[in-house]
C-alpha cells in the first residue's frame, strides 16, 4: 500500500491544467494537502523532449509526495515517457490520466477517450506499470463516457489487474464535463469492488462534504475547483478530521495577503510582470468567489496589469469592508 494511505485519510489536490503549477501545489501543501499531482503532461512531449512540456515536470522537495500525471494513447511511448520522468525527476508515483474530458485531448484518443476502448486502456496501463516497476503507478478515471455507458466498476477492476496501486474516480461522465452532480453512489460501488485505495472526486467543497463522502468507503478525497478558489479549504478539512470542529475561513485580510503573495511570487518566477498578471486574471477571478463585492472585483481583475494595482485593489476592498489593511508586502 502507498504509505500515505496507512492510518491516514489523505487529501489530494486534483491535477488541473493551467492551475496546479509548482507554486500553487506548494501553497496547497502549506494549507494541508497530503498529496499533489502535476498538471497533466503529454507523453509525446516528454518522448520528444519538448522544452515547454518538460517545464511541467518541475517540482520542489516540499511538494512530496507528488505524482506526475501523463496522458496519451500509445502504450510503448507512454511506458518510455514514464521511464524518462523517473530518470529525470524521481516523483513519488506516476499517475495516468484516463479522465480528462477536454476535446483536444479526447480527439487524440487520450484522457477519457480510453474509457470507450478498454482493451487499449489496459495495454496503456500495463505498459506503464511494467516500464517503471517497482515504482508505483496510479490512475484517474471518470465513471464512464456518458450516462448509457457507466463502466467505472469494470474499468477499476481492469486497472487493478494491471497493477495500478490507487485509483481516483471523478463522479461525472465525459459528456457531463463539469456540469450536473457527481455520482457518489457509483464512486462507492468502485470503492467496494476493488482492493486498491479509491480516491473520490467531485462536488467536495467543505469539511461537511468530506464527512459525508467518507461514508461511501473511499480511502481519500481529491479536491479540484474548491481548492482553486480557496486553497485554505485543506486546512479547514484537516482541522475537522482531527478535532470534529469547524474552522472558519481565514479573515479577509489574510485571504488578500495570500492572493498578493501568489501574484508576487509568480511574477518573480517569470520575470515578466505584465504577461504574468495577464495570465493570473483567471486565477484572481477564482479567488474572488465568496468575497464581498465579488462582481466588482471580477470587473477590476479583467484588466489588471501589475502587482501594485492588485495591492491598491486589496487596500480599497479592505477599507470598504471596514477592515484595517494589513502589511501586504
List keywords for this structure.
eight-stranded parallel β-barrel, 13% strand, TIM Barrel, globular, 15 helices, alpha/beta, 2 domains, single chain, 329 residues
Short description:
By secondary structure, the chain is α/β, with parallel strands linked by helices.
Helices and strands in order, then pairings?
Layout: E1 11-13, H1 22-31, E2 35-37, E3 41-42, H2 43-47, H3 51-55, E4 66-71, H4 75-89, E5 93-98, H5 103-106, H6 118-132, E6 137-144, H7 152-162, E7 167-173, H8 184-193, E8 198-201, H9 207-213, E9 220-223, H10 225-229, H11 233-243, H12 252-270, H13 273-287, H14 294-301, H15 307-320
Parallel strand pairs: 1-2, 1-9, 2-4, 3-4, 4-5, 5-6, 6-7, 7-8, 8-9
Helix pairs in contact: 4-6, 6-7, 7-8, 9-11, 12-13, 12-15
Low-confidence parts: none
Looking at how many chains there are and whether they match, the oligomeric state comes to single chain
Characterize the biggest β-sheet.
8 strands, parallel, barrel
**Architecture per CATH nomenclature, i.e. the level-2 architecture of the largest domain:** Alpha-Beta Barrel
Tell me the Rg in angstroms. 20 Å
Number of contiguous helices:
15
What gap, in angstroms, lies between the N and C termini? 43 Å
Number of strands: 9
β-strand percent reads 5-15%
Shape category: globular
CATH class wording of the largest domain: Alpha Beta
Q: Strand order, main sheet: write it out.
A: 1-2-4-5-6-7-8-9
CATH homology superfamily of the largest domain: Aldolase class I
SSE pattern: EHEEHHEHEHHEHEHEHEHHHHHH
The third-level CATH topology of the largest domain is TIM Barrel
Amino acid at each position: 500500500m502507498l504509505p500515505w494511505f496507512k492510518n491516514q485519510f489523505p487529501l489530494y489536490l486534483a491535477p488541473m491544467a493551467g492551475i496546479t503549477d509548482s507554486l500553487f501545489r506548494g501553497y496547497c501543501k502549506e494549507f494541508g494537502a497530503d498529496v499533489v499531482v502535476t498538471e497533466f503532461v503529454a507523453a509525446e512531449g516528454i518522448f520528444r523532449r519538448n522544452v515547454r512540456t518538460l517545464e511541467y515536470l518541475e517540482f520542489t522537495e516540499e511538494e512530496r509526495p507528488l505524482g506526475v500525471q501523463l496522458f496519451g494513447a500509445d502504450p510503448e511511448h507512454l511506458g518510455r515517457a514514464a521511464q524518462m520522468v523517473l530518470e529525470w525527476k524521481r516523483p513519488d508515483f506516476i499517475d495516468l490520466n484516463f479522465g480528462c474530458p477536454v476535446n483536444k485531448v479526447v480527439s487524440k484518443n487520450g484522457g477519457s477517450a480510453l474509457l470507450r476502448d478498454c482493451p487499449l486502456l489496459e495495454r496503456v496501463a500495463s505498459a506503464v506499470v511494467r516500464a517503471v516497476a517497482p515504482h508505483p503507478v496510479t490512475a484517474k478515471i471518470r465513471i464512464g463516457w456518458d450516462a448509457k455507458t457507466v463502466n467505472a466498476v469494470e474499468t477499476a477492476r481492469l486497472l487493478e489487474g494491471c497493477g495500478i496501486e490507487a485509483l481516483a474516480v471523478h463522479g461525472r461522465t465525459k459528456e457531463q464535463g463539469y456540469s450536473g452532480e457527481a455520482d457518489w453512489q457509483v464512486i462507492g460501488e468502485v470503492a467496494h469492488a476493488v482492493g486498491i485505495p479509491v480516491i473520490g472526486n467531485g462536488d467536495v467543497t467543505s469539511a461537511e462534504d468530506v464527512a459525508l463522502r467518507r461514508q461511501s468507503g473511499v480511502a481519500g478525497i481529491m479536491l479540484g475547483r474548491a481548492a482553486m478558489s480557496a486553497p485554505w479549504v485543506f486546512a479547514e478539512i484537516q482541522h475537522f478530521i482531527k478535532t470534529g470542529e469547524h474552522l472558519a475561513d481565514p479573515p479577509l485580510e489574510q485571504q488578500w495577503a495570500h492572493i498578493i503573495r501568489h501574484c508576487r511570487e509568480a511574477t518573480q518566477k517569470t520575470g515578466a510582470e505584465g504577461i504574468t498578471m495577464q495570465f493570473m486574471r483567471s486565477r484572481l477571478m477564482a479567488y474572488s468567489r465568496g468575497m464581498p463585492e465579488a462582481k466588482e472585483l471580477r470587473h477590476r481583475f479583467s484588466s489588471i496589469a501589475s502587482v501594485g494595482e492588485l495591492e491598491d485593489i486589496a487596500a480599497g476592498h479592505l477599507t470598504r469592508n471596514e477592515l484595517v489593511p494589513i502589511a501586504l508586502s
